[in-house]
Amino acid sequence: MNAFTPTDLPDVQATRDVRGHAIQRVGIRGVTHPVTVQTGQGVHASIAQVEMYVSLPADQKGTHMSRFVEILNGLDAPLDTSSLSLVLRAMLARLESDGGFLSFRMPVFLRKSAPVSGIESLMDYDMSLRAEQVDGEARIELEVTTPVTSLCPCSKTISRYGAHNQRSHVTIAVTLAPGALMMPDELIRIAEAAASCELWGLLKRADEKYVTERAYENPKFVEDLVRDVAAELCADPRVLRYQVASENFESIHNHSAYARIEGVSAPAA
Q: By CB neighbour count within 10 A (0-12 exposed, 13-18 middle, 19+ buried), where does 4 fall?
């Protein structure tokens, strides 16, 4: 059997396509890959679900699929809103493309101290980092989903004692100004501050008393949650655009209450 060298093998994907249709996104998805993530508490290991795409000219038959995996295997710096732009540029250069999209979705674990006892525990949050370049313009997005407690103002007002409360998921997605650095912790703190009360992984009795009374003293509709978060984001010069959603998993209904708000941050004075 004759031995082939790489130069002997035909490069079919590099041949010309005559159908005249450019492709906006082509690449790989459904990839599970170990990563490290930069947070305000340091660098943490995680496992990401990854999507990687580039744009393809109308006259090129295919892209180099193996190169996406090569780029993933070469990741060594922790992921954050700054390093992700470097990964995007490296991907575009390696794939010889002028447009592309990256997405890393992963859990991030942060340590929290209980409000009274101070006992520490881990809380997990869903986090996504996305980067996209279209028409020469790069965009970096950070998204975090934060579980919180919400207590109904109406229920508190009309009831002689007690009020219904539930767990809520507040999802904040921000598009950042070029070069801006933002940690997931920052979005988590904004979401927790807007809620009736934040959550902890481990609580003692004194902490449970605090959480119960804090929520009762700070009732919030789902509309209040998204508006309070939006007000914080609108004032942040690093944020160009934002989207805030809250889903309240109602304790007295067999459905959720939901609100979403989108906006553009106010320009710096």
A: exposed
Closest CA to 147 of 125, 165, 131: 125
Closest CA to 187 of 133, 139, 148: 148
d(CA 208, CA 190): 22
With a CB cutoff of 8 Å and minimum separation 6, the contacts of 146 are: 125, 169, 170, 171, 172, 187, 188, 191, 192
8 A C-beta contact, residue 234 and residue 267:
no
- The C-alpha atoms of residue 27 and residue 51 are separated, in whole angstroms, by 8
Per-residue pLDDT, 8: 74
Residues of the chain whose pLDDT is less than 50?
none
Question: What element of type H or E holds 192?
Answer: helix 184-194
Closest residue by Cα to residue 216 from 251, 250, 154, 165: 165
What's the rounded Cα separation, in Å, for the pair 125 and 237? 24
CB 242 within 8 A of CB 230: yes
14 in a domain, yes or no? no
Structure confidence at residue 14 (pLDDT): 73
Measured in residues, the chain has a length of 269
Confidence at residue 173, expressed as pLDDT on a 0 to 100 scale? 98
Q: Could you tell me which residues are beta bridge partners of residue 262?
A: 243
Count of structural domains, the chain: 1
Q: What is the CATH number of the domain that holds 232?
A: 3.10.270.10
Show the domain range for 246.
22-264
